[in-house]
Amino acid sequence: MPKSSRKAGGRVTVKNVADQAGVSIGAVSSVLSNRHVERRISQETVEKIRAVAMKLGYLPNISARRLRSGTGPNHNIVLAFVTSYEAPLNLVSNLIMELRQSVSGRGKGAAGMAFSVLVEMFSAGQLQAMPGLLTGDHFNAAIIANTTPEDDQFLNRAHLPFPVVLINRAIPRYSCVVEDPEAGGRAAGMLLGSRRRSLAVLRGNPLTQTTQDRTNSFIKAVSGQLGRPPQEIVADNLSEKAAHEAMTRFLQKGGRIDGLYAVTDGLALGAYQALKGRRLGIPADVAVVGVGDYDISDYFDPPLSVAGVERRELGREASRLLLRQLEQPGLPPLKVEIPVEPVWRASTGRK
Fold it and tell me: What SS3 state is found at 289?
């Protein structure tokens, strides 16, 4: 018979998992650090250990690994906000604010949890190369955003040994917060409602799951309304500079539009500068719609109309899902979809 898992309120240890699973501590350590293949541990044992660890709420003990001490809090949560170098970091501040409020408002459930937050960066498509991601050596909880299809394939295959919440991508086995996949369609409605008929979408390369959805739903909506697809303007990445260069090339080659949908606000800002450099007025010559992923979109010149989700809502739901996993280990993952709301500002001629 397996032994008792742990004392009430205490940290779950490798020994607790080993006792409950009826295996050795070495086997548990190998599995939870994703070294089971080299140790030739059977898949049946791997699945048993993972199931027990999830049920008990095991977290890698970062403080013990770093300080060689077991005297820290019962639940020392080192939370990593994981995002690509190519993506904006504005969501981080919203996440931290909402996490703080969520923890303080949970009362007894969050008692004994001590949080520290760090930002971990990876090159787009290279998430699997991030140190500590598979072993839990650097952090023991994560919120992951801005992954490419290659990164998503890795996440679909991998087993991360700590609670994870994904933002704006839906992958089986993970809790996630996503925006309405028809966000681009809402942007198309804003431009068409502003009597614009020669439309384009400005996107980066490569596409993430979310920017792909935004692009596809915009193209679908425009094609359905006008009987022809919008033009696509492709930047080398998601930076303002790349957007400025792509938009400038388009205009220099004689491209003509009267409405533009940028799939991030950073791309919209770069497009603003390219349009103004060609002495084109916003919105007199070209109306522009972004997505609201910059808190400063209201301070663009002119203020940027957006079709997106509230940043704080993303942070709030991501925090809620993470705390749910920490407080109630073993629960099935949840998907939360946040509706997209249009915000009219001067870039479309409406305030």
Answer: strand
The two three-digit tokens of residue 139, written as one number = 């952090």
Q: Check residue 99 and give its pLDDT.
A: 79
Helix residue ranges, H only, 14-89: 14-21, 25-32, 43-56, 62-67
Q: In what order do the strands lie in the sheet with 113-122?
A: 113-122, 75-84, 141-145, 164-167, 175-179, 335-338
Q: Tell me yes or no: is domain 183-308 CATH 3.40.50.2300.
A: yes
Residue from 192, 250, 242 nearest 218 by CA = 192
Q: Report whether 238 contacts 264 (CB < 8 A).
A: yes
Phi, psi (degrees; rounded to nearest 5) at 261? -110, 120
| DSSP assigned state of 128 | G
Task: Note whether 63-179+311-338 and 183-308 share their fold.
Answer: yes
Task: State the Cα–Cα distance between residues 245 and 253, nearest whole angstrom.
Answer: 12
Residue with tokens 């942007």: 187
Mean pLDDT for back-to-back runs of 10 residues, the chain (351 residues)? 49 84 84 79 85 81 49 68 76 77 64 77 89 85 90 92 92 93 96 96 89 95 97 93 97 97 96 97 97 90 94 88 89 94 93 64
Report the pLDDT value the prediction gives residue 107, as an integer from 0 to 100: 55
Report helix, strand or coil for 118.
Answer: strand
- Sign of the torsion formed by the C-alpha atoms of 193, 219, 309 and 271: negative
Homologous superfamily of 63-179+311-338: Response regulator (3.40.50.2300)
pLDDT at 266: 92
Q: Show me where the domains of the chain are located.
A: 14-58, 63-179+311-338, 183-308
3-class state of residue 112 by DSSP: coil
* Nearest residue to 259 (alpha-carbon basis) of 319, 320, 199: 199
Considering the entire predicted model, what is its pTM?
0.75
The pairing of beta strand 305-308 with beta strand 341-343: antiparallel
pLDDT of residue 109: 53
Closest CA relative to residue 78, chosen from 143, 8, 157: 143
pLDDT of the residue at 273: 97
Q: How far apart are CA 110 and CA 121, in angstroms?
A: 28
